[in-house]
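Quick note —
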Amino acid sequence: MQLGLIGTGRIGAMHSRTLLGLDGVTGLRITDALPDRAARLAAELRADGLAAEAVPTEEELYAAGVDAVVITAATHAHAELIHRALDRGKPVFCEKPVALDLPGTREVVRRSTEVDVPLQIGFQRRYDAGYRAAREAVRSGRLGWLHTLRAVTGDQDPPPAEYLPTSGGLFRDCSIHDFDALRWVTGREVVSACALGANRGAAFFAEADDVDTCVALLEFDDGTLATVSASRYNGAGHDVRLEVCGSLGALFVGHDDRAPLPSAEQGVPWPSGTPYRTFLERFRAAYVAELTEFVEVAAGRADNPCTAAEALEALCIAEACERSRRERRPVSIAEVRG
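Predicted structure written out below.
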């Protein structure tokens, strides 16, 4: 299978090596809005004995021939890139989000239901061993009925200022992973959100009409409550966790020896490992598993595990949180859907 990669930032560069290491992938054609960056990545891959070729434009990528495409370009470009791939009948893997807004996402959902071509959206936490174990425990009833979930995402270092205007904001860019994971683990739908945001760090967050810290309280359709918190300034390290608490037991995702959770108690040696610094470290195995499944989906050997319609549901929660933050009131998901 010859694959195309559109976008060669840090996650695109990581995915390129993963894809070229998968069974059945014979080569990778790469393009980027910055052609020189694509050329450098292809040269680095070839230097390591990997079958990679850079092409200057998206049109040339398709003209050269690819069986499926992986989109890791800037967020604001996702929707148009997806449409053009689907129009050519190419299976697509695209990193979240589908688009920056609800209308753009709905249009992709509509188009993806019209064509017999898979479109898989990248929510890699679905492939993390801890999140999968939590899902199994919830679905089996082992934890009893759920009463509280607590989701945390904390970046150790903030993104560059130039990233913010096209990121979609903290809820859409960062917490959307928590929103998807909460739906996926519980099998329930969020019905309302109440959120706050704050700026304690660099001025460029406020200048971009964004926040560097947020907290949201979510209510599910069965009465379960969840808190979601995120920060761009988690000095202890990259922190991603989920606490799932039920009437019969609880499970805690992300509590491994590299979790940035130094104890305030005396004589507690855990955790002793080097804290994660980035999401690429934290979810390396999950990304490999996710792309491995995409190759199976593209080949017609597996069903699509994460459709654009599911990504739309996570975006609706993010939109409700953003509206709640701005208007300082609870917002129902039904209101966002309209």
